[in-house]
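Notes for week 9. Today we move from apo structures to complexes. The key idea is that a small molecule is not decoration. When we ask for a structure prediction with zinc ion present, the ligand SMILES becomes part of the input, just like the chain. The input block below holds both the sequence and the ligand string. Read it once before you look at the output, and try to guess where the molecule might sit.
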Amino acid sequence: MEQEFQERLAARRRALHQIPEAGFKETKTQAYILETVAACPQDFLHYKTWKTGALIFIEGSNPAKTVGYRADMDGLPISEETGLPFSSHHEGMMHACGHDFHMTIGLALVEYFSVHQPLHNLLFVFQPAEEGPGGAEPLLASDEFRAWKPDEMYALHIAPELPVGTIATKPGILFANTSELFIDFKGKGGHAAYPHTAEDMVVTASHFVTQLQTIVARNVSPLDSAVVTIGKIEGGTKQNIIAEQARIEGTIRSLSIDSMNRIKARIEGMARGTEESFKCKVSIDYGANYCQVYNNEDLTEAFIQFADSFEGAAFRLCDKAMTGEDFGYFLEEIPGVMFWLGVDSDYGLHSSKLDPDENALSVAVNYLTEFIKSR
Ligand SMILES: [Zn+2]
Ligand SMILES: [Zn+2]
């Protein structure tokens, strides 16, 4: 029975794994979800789409509230290198962040509760574009979501470094505030042998990168934590031409909204100073932003209490991480908990070789079925 259940879950996960799609392009994935939901008993189930996502509402028998579960849907622009027989069918795209797992677990819960009516209402949110360009914020603001807005909300993320059977979380901040960072420098180029007639954007960008290093060292409290990383730099056209443009690309991470704002203000201040001292134009683009994931203290305490007493999983208190997750936007508005699910893979999230252990699927479904009933 359990074996058969596990195989059904694995088959569903493999089907989703083969069709990874980019944010707001999850049309095949959406069709797969809708097909699965349409096959469920419809006695107390309602559903609708939102862009390439789906919202599934299950009426409780005597509801006092609505409990939500969110699964993200998008894959990543990565060429899969697992060599698995059920590898991605979409060239250059891969479910390398476990969103195929998150959806499979969500669908199994929909199937279960469409047969076994829950006490309270349930909302299952299949959310597009977690990796980018950002699905959580517009979804939260949509009429479709607001009509069924939950009173508390849960989500999980696979954790390759934790063994199968492990569930981990912590109260308060779990994931960092993150922001992309793109900075363009534009000045007057010129002949390499006439530096006095030009403004050199390679020198300018180099100074700027060095200056950025002082932000974490000098502007963030030593008791707080933050990261400013520049991962890419490019500029100029040729070895004997003074560059008229340069671009740096990076990311900012912080453990409080306050320090994120402070870091951005410092970068903007440095940009104005650089324009003045290097006679150029500096433009800043923050790209995709993620709000911190902050677990509600009371709900996390209840979650941990339940997890401790649940026999099918081992609970661990974990540390906070500098990764980003747009589930944080939900938790800004709705109290809830995000947690890690151990899937024991030698390769990490966003790796082309990520190979999560499918035995974690039934652990999560069994756990969440009982947990949701306990709410
Ligand atoms: Zn990811
Ligand atoms: Zn993810």
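The mean pLDDT is 97.
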